[in-house]
Amino acid sequence: MNIKILTPEYVVFEGEVDSVLLPGKNGEFHIMKNHAGIVSSLIGGKVKLFAKSIDEAYTKNLTKENEKDSVFSYPIKSGVIEFNHNKGIILCE
């Protein structure tokens, strides 16, 4: 599935991931391939991308959670996600 993370200043990430874990208002939630369409607000926390690899152009924006797993994170203060047809856009600050 394709995920794009945008801030008002720049594109944090755009690419293929296996799934994404998000800090929602009512707790963390996980979006996986073929998830139903969703629009949700996000609170402060980490957006975690589960991917086999990340394009080198975006590695400076993301933190690798650990060496064993391919989990990359990006801290946010707030935001919103729209996900539909295996494409997601996360607008955040």
Automatic annotation (TrEMBL):
Pfam families listed in its UniProt record: ATP-synt_DE_N (PF02823)
Keywords: ATP synthesis, CF(1), Ion transport, Membrane, Transport
InterPro entries noted in UniProt: ATP_synth_F1_dsu/esu, ATP_synth_F1_dsu/esu_N, ATPsynth_dsu/esu_N
GO molecular function, one term: proton-transporting ATP synthase activity, rotational mechanism
Domain of life: Bacteria
Gene Ontology cellular component list: endomembrane system; proton-transporting ATP synthase complex
Topology of this chain in the membrane: Peripheral membrane protein
Residue ranges annotated for the ATP synthase F1 complex delta/epsilon subunit N-terminal domain, each copy included: 1-52
Chief location: membrane
Compartments where found: Endomembrane system
Family the entry assigns: Belongs to the ATPase epsilon chain family.
Role summary: Produces ATP from ADP in the presence of a proton gradient across the membrane.
Official protein name in the record: F0F1 ATP synthase subunit epsilon
